[in-house]
Amino acid sequence: MSVSYKLGDLVWAKMKGFSPWPGRVAIPTPELKPPKKAMNVQCIYFFGTNNYAWIEDNNIKPYQEYKEQLIKSCKTAAFKEAVNQIEEFILHPEKFGDLDDHGRNTEEDFDKLKDEIDEEDSQEEKADGEEEPPAPEAPPKKKSATPKVKPMKRSSSAGMKSTPRKKSKSSLSRSYTDTDMANEKPSMLNHSFSKKSSLLNRPSNILRPETPPLDLENVSETLLEKNIKASQMKFGFLGLGIMGSGIVKNLLNSGHKVIIWNRTAAKVSDIFSIT
């Protein structure tokens, strides 16, 4: 015959692999999810370990009825501590506080507290509704015959002059005309123009690095290894600098036809005299 347990009952609950343990039927914590398959189960709070677990009804027994039989089922220190706690809970439950505090509905508690505060406020308003008799008005003060003299502000030093007032914006703001623009200095009108002009005033007599003369007789080994076939097209090349002279040299050594333009004709004539 199955016993129906209710919230707060003290019981012996047995989990798989453990001896019967003193506990209490409690409200499950939010983290403890109910089992899917088991039907007749109870949420048990275990004394000593302060854990919660779902236990089937056939593994639960009333505490007082089976106390003498199961109190000696285990001899560990944790079991003895759990038994001492449940006995202390029976004598002084107020020491343990509310074990089901996690399952309380905070919204309902807030509504109850709010209703109590509203009732207290309404009672205070009724008590304050009884108006006290108004106090007698004080007689008006008589005006003195002597008029009040406003105190004069003294300056910090006798010889200091009063500071002039600031001019209004309307007197300062005016539109620039063509004559004003002509009288203004160029550096004041356009600051960026003065900066750019200083950058353009660079010396023109900068010495350029001299490029070595072309040596068409010495062919590089990499060019000989590639065995490049000359094309029938003509190649135009501008400038015989350090990089350009080397490219032209490789084109001529590989048998290409090259048309050259250079700023100074001396280098071009040297090449054609070699070829």
TrEMBL record:
Compositionally biased region (Basic residues): 141-153
**SMART domains under this entry?**
PWWP
Family matches, as PROSITE patterns: PWWP
What are the residue boundaries of the PWWP domain, all occurrences included? Answer: 7-66
- Which is a Pfam family this sequence falls into? PWWP
Region named Disordered: 96-213
From start to end residue, where is composition biased (Polar residues)? 189-204
* Chain intervals with Acidic residues compositional bias: 116-134
Top-level taxon of the source organism:
Eukaryota
Q: Can you name this protein?
A: PWWP domain-containing protein
Origin organism is Arctia plantaginis (Wood tiger moth)
